[in-house]
Amino acid sequence: MSRIYIAGPMTGIPEYNRPAFFDAAAQLVDRGHTVLNPATLPNGLTQPQYMDICCAMLRCADAVFLLEGWEQSAGARAERALAEKLELGVIFQEEWLGDTVERRKDESAICNQQICGL
């Protein structure tokens, strides 16, 4: 299966939105994916340090999974932009139940079975 990085809002949300990250991670693992989850990082780092680590994690992924509310997060928007630049698959949580995955490498391709096994 695929390596999938989870991106979403954390700053300003109770528990840094970790429950949403862990719930998404569990669902992705249940489908056989390897999950790169920034919610597992320790407290106490600066925003630039978190972004350095998260960008490195994203560069190891095949796709990014965007949690609901990602649009309100500067970090998640930056991670999506990096994913697009790297031509990774993009999975929107709100569309995931419909198994919709946007593939940026080829605008006309939908990545269902080949990359994400959805």
Would you give an account of this structure?
The chain contains four helices and five strands. It is α/β, with parallel strands linked by helices and 118 residues long. The protein has a single domain, classed as Rossmann fold, CATH 3.40.50.10400. It has a five-stranded mixed β-sheet with strand order 2-1-3-4-5, sandwiched between helices. Helix 2 packs parallel to helix 3. The model is unreliable at 100-115 (pLDDT under 50). Pfam families: DUF4406 (PF14359). This is DUF4406 domain-containing protein. It comes from Lelliottia wanjuensis. InterPro entries: DUF4406 (IPR025518).
Show the helix and strand layout:
Layout lengths: L2 E5 L10 H13 L3 E3 L10 H13 L3 E4 L7 H12 L3 E4 H4 L4 E3 L15
Parallel strand pairs: 1-2, 1-3, 3-4
Antiparallel strand pairs: 4-5
Helix pairs in contact: 2-3
Fill in the keyword field for this structure.
single chain; 118 residues; alpha/beta; Rossmann fold
**Major sheet, described briefly?**
5 strands, mixed
The topology string of helices and strands comes to: EHEHEHEHE
Q: Which overall shape is indicated by the principal axes computed on the Cα atoms?
A: globular
User: Could you say what the CATH topology is called?
Assistant: Rossmann fold
The rounded distance between the terminal residues' Cα atoms is: 10 Å
- Mean residue pLDDT: 87
Gyration radius over CA: 13 Å
Count of helix runs: 4
Strand content: 15-25%
CATH homologous superfamily designation: Hypothetical protein PA1492
